[in-house]
Specification:
Layout lengths: L19 H27 L1 H8 L3 H8 L1 H20 L2 H19 L5 H15 L3 H11 L2 H12 L1 H19 L2 H22 L15 H8 L2 H31 L4 H30 L6 H22 L3 H16 L2 H9 L7 H35 L3 H9 L1 H20 L3
Helix pairs in contact: 1-5, 1-7, 1-8, 1-9, 1-10, 1-12, 3-6, 3-17, 4-5, 4-6, 4-7, 4-17, 5-6, 5-7, 5-10, 7-17, 8-13, 8-16, 9-10, 9-13, 12-13, 12-17, 12-18, 12-19, 13-14, 13-15, 13-16, 14-15, 14-16, 14-19, 17-18
Subcellular location: Membrane
Main location: membrane
Keywords: Membrane, Transmembrane, Transmembrane helix, Transport
Length: 426
């Protein structure tokens, strides 16, 4: 697709003629799709143990499956699919994407080795590439600016909800049947949801404003904004550790704390649900309230949160006690999710309304290609390298070393605050 295709003319910040009730329904459907997005994305983490044993994989190979295999096409395909969504129908792009990634999730259950699982995970990445950026743009069109950060926070609940449900359902199905059935059941459930989403969610009416803008102008506009680069690489830094933690945390609980598969699912599912939901919603509320008077606070809120989270995560990893670790992990898990709504909202306001999906996809390209592609692999490779010295504690040492990425994210986001104040587009 040519980057110079003309966008449909859309009002700068118009909201569709939709009732509050229908907007809530739209948000609930988008949340449901995003929840499946993360169920399918993260289920590999809880099933890594039995998959590793049956297929004879190393931690490095597991890291590639959980990160690079997914991230390669997920990151690169997001931009052309977002451009398609900006030009045509975002609801159709999301519907098709859900069907594709769910189908490939089911195919993961047929993997016979590293190669076939890698190919299936590539397919999951292709499908999920068309889900997030068009959803951000739909939310920005359906909700006025004063409610946007909170709406994006509700949508972002799909991350902890999906990750937690993937952990819980994946472990329960694997424990009762096997890991292959877990992939098939969860994948087919997403396929069923796809047509329901298309029936319920309407594409917002695009209001004519006159001049059309070429898609290439979205990239040029973003490239000239210092706050975009600082927020994108700040998010990529935190995602390097965040995605790595999400994938390897179940293995940490089994190797360092002695939990079995089902016990791990209850522990991690609880941390994700309680800590994750509190953090996502807290970030949205703080963004809307504190960001009104100072746009720079959209970047400062997560910067402060990451600094506080680092020593708490370290204490949890080193605690050696299941009960104490659960309490210690709750707060930093919440703090680690607080960046989502404020930063996503800020990115939406770096460009005019017709460019939002493309801007979001550009942000996600950097965030996911670096964060998702590198983080899971890096922690796995470091764990393999440290095994000779630390044995079963090698993964814990790897995760401790990875905490430096949260500190780097805090620095980058803090520097983004000043340019964000002048580069914000209302």
């Amino acid at each position: 697709m040519s980057a110079t295709m003309a966008l449909p003319p859309i009002a700068a910040d118009s909201a569709p003629a939709a009732s509050r009730t229908y907007r809530a329904v739209v948000l609930a459907m988008l949340l449901l799709v995003y929840t499946f997005n993360f169920i399918d994305r993260q289920i590999l983490g809880i099933l890594a143990g039995p998959i590793k044993a049956e297929l004879g994989l190393s931690d490095t190979q597991l890291g590639l499956l959980g990160g690079l295999a997914f991230a390669i096409l997920y990151s690169t395909m997001a931009i052309p699919l977002a451009m398609l969504a900006d030009k045509t129908s975002r609801t159709w792009v999301i519907t098709g994407s859900l069907a594709v990634w769910s189908g490939f999730t089911a195919l993961c259950g047929a993997a016979t080795g590293f190669g076939t699982m890698f190919l299936a995970r590539l397919g999951v990445g292709v499908g999920e590439a068309g889900g997030v950026a068009p959803s951000y743009a739909l939310i920005a069109d359906y909700f006025p600016p004063a409610e946007r950060s909170r709406a994006l926070a509700v949508y972002s609940l799909g991350i902890p909800l999906g990750a937690a449900l993937g952990v819980l359902f994946g472990a329960q199905i694997a424990a009762r049947i096997d890991w292959r059935t877990a992939f098939v059941v969860i994948g087919l459930a997403g396929v069923v949801i796809a047509p329901l989403f298309r029936l319920v969610v309407r594409e917002p009416k695009r209001v004519a404003t006159g001049a059309q803008a070429p898609l290439s102008s979205a990239f040029a506009l973003l490239a000239g904004k210092r706050s975009f680069w600082l927020m994108a690489f700040g998010a990529a830094s935190c995602s390097t550790l965040g995605y790595g933690f999400a994938f390897w945390f179940p293995q940490l609980l089994q190797r360092s704390f002695g939990l079995d598969l089902v016990g791990t699912s209850y522990f991690y599912g609880g941390v994700l649900l309680l800590g994750g939901i509190a953090g996502v919603l807290g970030g949205g509320v703080l963004g809307d309230r504190l960001g009104k008077g100072d746009r720079g606070r959209y970047a400062l809120i997560p910067a402060v949160a990451f600094v506080i989270a680092v020593p708490l995560f370290a204490a949890g990893i080193l605690s050696g006690s299941v009960g104490l670790a659960f309490l210690l992990f709750l707060l930093p898990q919440a703090l680690a999710y607080m960046w989502l709504a404020p930063i996503i909202t800020a990115v939406q306001h770096l460009v005019p309304a017709p460019m939002r999906a493309t801007a979001s996809a550009s942000f996600l390209l950097i965030n996911n290609l670096v964060g998702l592609g590198a983080g899971t692999y890096a922690l796995g490779a470091l764990s393999d390298a440290l095994t000779g010295r630390f044995g079963n504690q090698a993964l814990a040492m790897s995760m401790l070393a990875g905490l430096v990425f949260y500190l780097l994210a805090a620095v980058l986001l803090a520097f983004a605050a000043k340019p964000l104040r002048r580069e914000w587009v209302d």
